[in-house]
From TrEMBL:
Transmembrane segments: 6-29, 36-57, 63-87
Acyltransferase found in the keyword field: no
Primary localisation category: membrane
Lineage of origin: Eukaryota, Metazoa, Spiralia, Lophotrochozoa, Mollusca
Membrane topology reported for the UniProt record: Multi-pass membrane protein
Location in or out of the cell: Membrane
Domain ABC transmembrane type-1 residue range list: 2-95
InterPro entries reported for this sequence: MetI-like
Name this protein carries in UniProt: ABC transmembrane type-1 domain-containing protein
Organism: Dreissena polymorpha (Zebra mussel)
One example of a Gene Ontology biological process annotation: transmembrane transport
GO cellular component: membrane
Amino acid sequence: MMLVVVIVLMIVVFMTIVMVCLIVLVIAVVRVVIMVVVVVILVVEMVVMVVVMVGVVMVVVKVVVMVVVTVVVMVEVVLVFVMVVMVEVKEAVEE
């Protein structure tokens, strides 16, 4: 009878140890999963920041292109004015 009680106690102790080990293992796995989630969130933040920076660069490029187009149009207007003045001077000289 004592032998049966000792065997049952050993089985209970062994099962308790196994349960504690399983709980520790689950906690470790949950910590690893949380770390992976944090890393994924950081990567997503970096991607969003890169997209925002690309958007800012695109806006700057648009502004620069608009300024260049405006300068080119102004230069064309000045050139047309100079050509008209030259034609007027040429006609005046011919008369």
